[in-house]
Amino acid sequence: DEPTNNLDIESIDALADAINEYRGAVIVVSHDARLITETACQLWVVEERGLSQIDGDFDDYKREVLEALGEVVISRPRD
């Protein structure tokens, strides 16, 4: 959980390299976009009491979320 707390950029990069080189399974729980982006991982998101597998990378997920937020803002009735 949050493996990058108190790490500098060089240490985060070293951690990402170690994760990418490891041949076993690693489960990382993080809000750190740098670590998520730098690791070759399958992205799963916990939201709305469920677990969703994301097709694509972290940038695809961010784009999907921003598009959904735009739809919410656009479809919100005005007072």
From TrEMBL:
The keyword Nucleotide-binding applies. GO terms for molecular function: ATP binding. SUPFAM superfamilies: P-loop containing nucleoside triphosphate hydrolases (SSF52540). InterPro entries: ABCF, P-loop_NTPase. Keywords: ATP-binding, Nucleotide-binding, Repeat. This is ATP-binding cassette sub-family F member 1. It comes from Anas platyrhynchos (Mallard). The lineage of its organism: Eukaryota, Metazoa, Chordata, Craniata, Vertebrata.
